[in-house]
Amino acid sequence: WGLPPLALVRLMRAIALTWSGSLQEAFHEYDRSHRMADEDGSPEMASYVFCFSSEAYFLTLESDRALASARQAEAISRTLDSSGLAGFVQLALGYAHLAAGRATDAAKAARNALEFLRLTDKARAGEAAAVVAEALLQKGDLAAALSAAEEAIALCSRSLRAIYEAMAHGVVARVLLRRDGAVAREAVEAELALAAGLLEQTGARTFTPSLLEWRAELAAALGDDAAHMQLLQQARNLFDEIGAPLQAQRITALIGASPS
Length: 260
What we know:
single chain; mainly alpha; 13 helices
């Protein structure tokens, strides 16, 4: 099975739009790429489109769509003799489960992805490790999340996967904060500064509201209620700007639940 070049270009554009903060435009590009893959008779290309769109739906917190895309990728991959797809499919399932709050399922799928990608696409193994770390943090297993995040940072640094390295630094920051509280301030701030620097290098605007949310968590631990609220409001506004309204609604709920 080949990858049609025009559909591949559309997919690359969709991925770029996903990370630059134009999520709704990105979804249009994923749809175009999928149609072109169908027109060219390339189910393998279609499967890759579904895998990457599942990650984008994770970023917008559209868990049902994330899972639907992952399942479509999985169904196609079963009909193909392509070992390279397996890791991508498992990673897509990890994103989908994470978006839905199914942390145990997310960690299992991401671990499967990590094992496949170590063999088939080492450059993406760090991404899978970062998803494992995020899932374990969501699950509340701080020690395992820290270990996975440290592995992700090492893998991503070697493969120049700066966005996912930033994601892993965010996990480390939150683990330290939730484990040690305000006494970990300097270490947490250092991790968040590393994440911010990596995001600035890549121009990955889509992750900026998450960074603001992590900083808000630190402010709350330090007892700075004004900074906590301000950072949450900034995160909410930016989620709206990049086309992630469900994320914005989630932050609005956090603001409403915060003591005034």
